[in-house]
Q: What sequence folds into this?
C-alpha cells in the first residue's frame, strides 16, 4: 500500500506527508520510488521476460529529471526522448546510448547531430526531410544510424483531442500513402548509412481499451508484409508507442498484459500465416509508469465562500505546477493530508493562485473541510505535471522529493527567485 492513513494523516510510501511539507516546503512533488519500481517490474515480468527481443522505452516526456533517468539506467530499460534536452539528461544520467531512442516531428539538426554522434539506439524518422538530414549527418561523421519509420496508422481513438496523435490529420508521422511511403522506405533500405530497423506508431494517450493498439498493429503488419513483398526486406521491430491509461480518480488502470498479450498474439499469428520473419515489439509507456507514483502537496491559503454558488479553497500552486486541468479538463482527486480520516461533509473547489480563472485544480470535491494552513494532497500528478511546469506569473517551480518505505530524499531543488531570473539580462 503506498497510500495509508495513520492518526488522521496521509502517509505516502511510508512517509508522513505533513512532515514532508514541513521539511521541504510546498508546493512539492512527491514520488513513490516503490511504485515506479513496481510498475517497471510489471513491465519486465509480463512483457520483457516473456517475449524475446521485446523493448520498453519509458517516454521521458512524462517526467525526466536526472533521478528518474537514473532509475531507467539502473532498471536496465530504455528511454524515449523527444528533444536535445531530454537526450542530454538521459546521457548525463548514464543511460547507455543504445538504450535511447529519439522521437519528434521536427528534430533540429543539432539534436540529430547529437543523436548520431552519441550513437543512440534508434531514431524514429518522422518524414523524408528528416531522413535526408540524418543521412547527411551520418556521412559527414562517418557513422550509421538505426532508424524506425513512424507512420500515422489512421486510427481514431477515444481520448482528449489534444492527446490523440495517430489520426490522418496529424503533424506526426508519415501518412498511409504509397506514393509518399514507398520511395522513403526504398531510400531507407538502400542507404549505406541507415539501418532500417522497424515501423513505429503512437496513437494517443490515456487509453483503456486495447482495440486501438490492435487496429494500428494490423496496419503496421500489413506494411511489414508489403515491404517484404516489394523489397524482399524483413522488418525487425514494430514499436506500438505508449498510451496505456493511468488511474486519476475512478478509472481502473488495466495491466500492461491486457494491451500487450493480444498484440503479441496478433503478430505471431499474422507472421505465421504470411510467412514473415516475426518482428520484435517495442513500447513507449510514459504516463502509466509515473502518473500514480506522484502526488503534489500544497498549503491551503485563502478560503472563499460565495453563498449559494461555490466554496473556493486556494492553494499555493496550481496551473504552473499542473497545467492538465486547464489544458485538457483533466480531473483529479485529493484529500486534506492532516484530516485524511475525517468525514467528507464539505464540498469545495480547489483553485490555484494564478491570475487566470481556468486555474482550477479540482472542481466540486467532496471532503473534510479544509482550514487555512492545512496540507492538501492531489493524487496521480506524477505524469506531465513537473514536466509541463511553467513560471507563469513568475511563480517558482516546486522541488521534487522521492520517498521509499519511509525514507525521503530531495531529487530536484525548488526553484528560487534568483534561479528564475538567472538567465535574464
Ligand atoms: N510515444 C510517443 C511517440 C508519444 O508521442 C507519447 C506521448 C508517448 C510515447 C507516451 O504516451 P503515454 O504512455 O504517456 O500516454 N501532455 C499530455 C500527454 C501528451 C502525450 C504525448 N505523447 C497529458 O498531460 O495528458
A:
Amino acid at each position: 500500500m503506498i497510500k495509508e492513513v495513520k492518526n488522521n494523516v496521509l502517509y505516502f510510501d511510508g512517509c508522513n506527508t505533513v512532515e514532508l511539507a514541513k521539511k521541504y516546503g510546498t508546493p512539492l512533488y512527491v514520488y513513490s520510488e516503490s511504485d515506479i519500481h513496481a510498475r517497471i517490474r510489471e513491465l519486465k515480468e509480463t512483457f520483457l521476460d516473456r517475449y524475446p527481443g521485446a523493448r520498453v522505452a519509458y517516454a521521458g516526456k512524462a517526467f525526466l529529471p536526472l533521478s528518474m533517468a537514473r532509475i531507467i539506467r539502473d532498471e536496465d530499460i530504455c528511454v524515449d526522448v523527444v528533444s536535445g534536452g531530454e537526450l542530454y539528461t538521459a546521457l548525463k544520467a548514464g543511460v547507455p546510448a543504445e538504450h535511447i531512442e529519439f522521437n519528434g516531428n521536427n528534430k533540429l539538426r543539432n539534436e540529430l547531430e547529437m543523436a548520431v554522434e552519441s550513437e543512440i539506439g534508434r531514431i524514429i524518422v518522422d518524414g523524408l526531410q528528416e531522413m535526408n538530414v540524418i543521412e547527411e549527418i551520418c556521412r559527414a561523421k562517418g557513422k550509421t544510424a538505426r532508424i524506425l519509420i513512424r507512420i500515422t496508422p489512421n486510427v481514431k481513438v477515444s481520448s482528449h483531442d489534444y492527446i490523440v496523435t495517430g489520426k490522418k490529420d496529424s503533424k506526426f508521422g508519415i501518412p498511409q500513402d504509397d506514393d509518399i511511403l514507398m520511395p522513403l522506405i526504398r531510400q531507407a533500405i538502400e542507404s549505406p548509412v541507415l539501418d532500417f530497423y522497424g515501423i513505429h506508431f503512437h496513437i494517443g494517450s490515456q487509453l483503456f481499451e486495447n482495440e486501438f493498439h490492435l487496429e494500428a498493429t494490423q496496419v503496421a503488419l500489413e506494411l511489414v508484409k508489403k515491404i517484404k513483398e516489394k523489397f524482399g526486406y524483413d522488418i525487425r521491430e514494430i514499436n506500438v508507442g505508449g498510451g496505456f491509461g493511468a488511474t486519476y480518480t475512478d478509472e481502473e488502470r488495466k495491466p500492461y498484459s491486457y494491451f500487450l498479450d493480444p498484440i503479441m498474439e496478433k503478430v505471431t499469428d499474422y507472421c505465421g500465416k504470411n510467412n514473415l520473419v516475426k518482428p520484435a515489439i517495442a513500447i513507449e509507456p510514459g504516463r502509466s509508469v509515473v502518473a500514480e507514483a506522484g502526488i503534489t502537496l500544497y498549503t491551503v491559503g485563502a478560503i472563499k465562500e460565495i453563498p449559494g454558488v461555490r466554496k473556493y479553497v486556494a492553494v499555493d500552486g496550481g496551473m504552473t505546477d499542473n497545467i492538465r486541468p486547464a489544458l485538457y479538463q483533466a480531473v483529479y482527486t485529493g484529500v486534506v493530508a492532516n484530516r485524511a480520516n475525517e468525514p467528507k461533509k464539505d464540498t469545495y473547489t480547489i483553485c490555484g493562485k494564478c491570475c487566470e480563472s481556468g486555474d482550477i485544480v479540482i472542481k466540486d470535491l467532496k471532503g473534510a473541510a479544509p482550514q487555512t494552513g492545512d496540507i492538501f494532497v492531489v493524487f496521480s500528478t506524477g505524469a506531465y505535471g513537473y514536466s509541463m511546469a511553467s513560471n507563469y506569473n513568475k511563480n517558482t517551480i516546486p522541488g521534487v522529493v522521492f520517498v521509499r518505505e519511509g525514507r525521503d530524499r530531495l531529487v530536484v531543488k525548488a526553484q528560487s527567485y534568483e534561479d528564475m531570473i538567472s538567465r535574464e539580462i
Notes: The two ends are 49 Å apart (CA to CA). The chain has twelve helices and 20 strands.
